[in-house]
């Protein structure tokens, strides 16, 4: 199913669409205020962009440097080529501990690898400890946003879910009380957790440490209570030095939610005496993207979500309309790398307005990459055949002035004489579902121009094509 | 100065008055412009649909048509942006490079090349300015809210110089209208919703005349205004600056 069809389903509930759009626009405006308040913000973006470009250009070296430093700190480092390997490695570590109860803080990578269902299948209980993640875990839904995973739900929806799973009162929708119920529920899970899994926001090659940014402190609590910590990261999470980190922490929270910094910026460098720490480094298609010159910059992404919040399409179609772990503009340039056929409609789910590129804290040229994916998809015949053929026809039409002049006249005249009901029938004309067609004028500009008394200025002698 | 007028296909066919206003406005500013009759299109609709290869003959035709002029001026920033940014697919001959640099959006041409900042005339109406993304973010004709809270730009300044005009203060100064070329039919639902939301912002804040420098966005917004039968006029900025009344 295409993005447009899934978007149409979302749009059916006009009030909810308005609410979703306004909620995310509110976040975008908060981001704006935070950004305006930092005079050097644009310089920071440039710096972050350069650091990421540099790192990606020497990724092999930095990965090895990171591995050596982490091992020297007593951390076990694992390499996973794909999602299956990632999941198997994690299961093996859990089995080795004889553990069955896992707590997990937010990690888009484990979503991408479908770790939760895999562990459940193998008899392991895994509890998401981020509030938003826990809500959608109860509902067996995918996150609809990378920073705000349950942003598609209203507080009433959360109340219904908690009533079902946590026994809160029916109809309860007070955020304070709902959060308190989740807190009590999660506390028990934290205390029982044997292995804690976390994502990674930044991995520092120089120190071998990983950095996790949260607002709820759930990563720290999980890790500190459990016997084993497993941190999962994509290969692109690296930064060279600890001194580079400040550039990114200043950008990340401001871009994501308009906060100056996330409430918790937790550094995990070595295991506590008597405990274990593992880092799983995952490729899963990333080196393939790194090998595509036009698209490699997408790996600079620090997953702030700003491109989603600003995207006028995302705000009105919801994250699930993208049917990919990472929705929105960045998801639309990451997904065709994974499965071009399945995600062929995503690069077209954009007006190419460019707002995503302008908010991106690491200056990824998102809208240019959307345009370029369209060409790749066109060449690979992954666009609808009707579109392909009409474009071929137009190509020939518009390369010749004479043929073009005739067809335009025809269209305009037809529009004038056809009855409104025919030109505006929904199945006939997607334009006309919500819009009137322009009123065809008596004459075209070129007809008018021809009738003007010469001389309008003398033309230089244009070279007439052969 | 040899100036050619590029009138995009949909303006030629549906909004000839915008082409006329552009020509007359340039003449008033002392710049007679010539309209080469063999012109067709910039190729953007094809390229944005993923058919760049099929657009190459159109690009070449465009270059042949305009290579002998000092400037190519169009009342549509989107086409100009396409010529400047995406004609990189052609072999970069001297002619191609010249045409890419010579292509100007009308308002950009008036502000940057002619260095005109104010225009005579009056327009005593409340005017809502629609910033088109390709002109604003692509050609940098106006500030972007992603970067700065200051609402400034070429067309805003020119309009503000007219007597009696009042510019609408929008809640969202530069959100995309949802036209997006073929997007308007391939994602018709989202496109319409975006347009409706944009128009609602203007209604809420009292716009009487909705304007902008890119007729493609305005065609889409006008379609929505007319469907909802709103008491709002949609005019291209060239018409207003040329002294037309709503
Ligand atoms: S692409 Fe840029 S704006 Fe979007 S999530 Fe990644 S870092 Fe943030």
Q: Kindly estimate the percentage of residues of chain B that lie in beta strands according to DSSP.
A: 5-15%
CATH level 1 class label of the largest domain in chain B: Alpha Beta
How many individual helices of chain B? 13
What is the number of E strands of chain B? 8
- Look at the helices and sheets of chain B and give the structural class: alpha/beta
> Count of DSSP E strands of chain A?
10
CATH architectural category of the largest domain in chain A: 3-Layer(aba) Sandwich
Helical stretch count of chain A?
22
Small molecules bound = iron/sulfur cluster
From the N-terminal CA to the C-terminal CA of chain B, the straight-line distance is 32 Å
Largest interface (C-beta under 8 Å): A-B, 81 and 86 residues
Instruction: Characterize the largest beta sheet of chain B: strand count, sense, and whether it forms a barrel.
Output: 4 strands, parallel
Tell me what the CATH architecture of the largest domain in chain B is. 3-Layer(aba) Sandwich
Percentage of residues in strands of chain A: 5-15%
List the helices and strands and how they pair.
The complex is a heterodimer of chains A (466) and B (246).
Chain A: H1 3-11, H2 14-36, H3 41-57, H4 59-72, E1 76-80, H5 83-97, E2 101-104, H6 108-112, H7 115-121, E3 125-128, H8 131-139, H9 155-166, H10 175-192, E4 195-198, E5 202-204, E6 209-214, H11 218-225, E7 228-234, E8 238-239, H12 245-257, E9 264-268, E10 276-282, H13 286-290, H14 306-310, H15 312-317, H16 328-338, H17 355-359, H18 366-379, H19 385-398, H20 401-417, H21 420-423, H22 445-451
Parallel strand pairs in A: 1-10, 2-3, 2-4, 4-7, 5-8, 7-10
Antiparallel strand pairs in A: 5-6, 6-9
Chain B: E1 3-5, H1 9-14, H2 16-28, E2 33-34, H3 44-48, H4 52-66, E3 71-74, H5 77-86, H6 94-102, E4 103-105, H7 106-113, E5 126-129, H8 133-138, H9 154-160, E6 166-167, H10 183-186, H11 188-204, E7 209-212, H12 215-227, E8 233-236, H13 237-241
Parallel strand pairs in B: 1-2, 1-3, 3-4, 5-6, 5-7, 7-8
Helix pairs in contact in B: 11-12
Bound molecules: iron/sulfur cluster.
